[in-house]
């Protein structure tokens, strides 16, 4: 249970940092960034698995890469669709 909570915290923080770095207006604002971070962290964990440093048994690099890709895709699709938040 503690590992799941830590995974969620890491994914949320990464999602918010990535959204702030790119400055994309993600649909849903901060909650959208959190969901994108969780989705990206999960995808990165499934595809890459064990890579990079760990925090509490969770690998950070796959979560960062996954969140980066998901937020990038959402940001680009949002700009293309001309969505304003």
SSE topology:
Blueprint: H1 2-22, H2 29-48, E1 54-55, E2 58-59, H3 60-80
Antiparallel strand pairs: 1-2
- Give the low-pLDDT segments: none
Task: Report the helical percentage.
Answer: over 70%
Assign the structural class, choosing from mainly alpha, mainly beta, alpha/beta, alpha+beta, or little secondary structure.
mainly alpha
How many beta strands in the DSSP annotation?
Answer: 2
Shape: globular
In total, the number of domains comes to 1
Spatial strand sequence of the major β-sheet: 1-2
- Count of separate DSSP helical elements: 3
How would a crystallographer describe the biggest sheet?
A: 2 strands, antiparallel
Instruction: Write the H/E string, N to C.
Output: HHEEH
Radius of gyration, CA atoms, in whole angstroms: 13 Å
Beta-strand percentage? under 5%
Termini distance?
35 Å
Chain-averaged pLDDT: 76
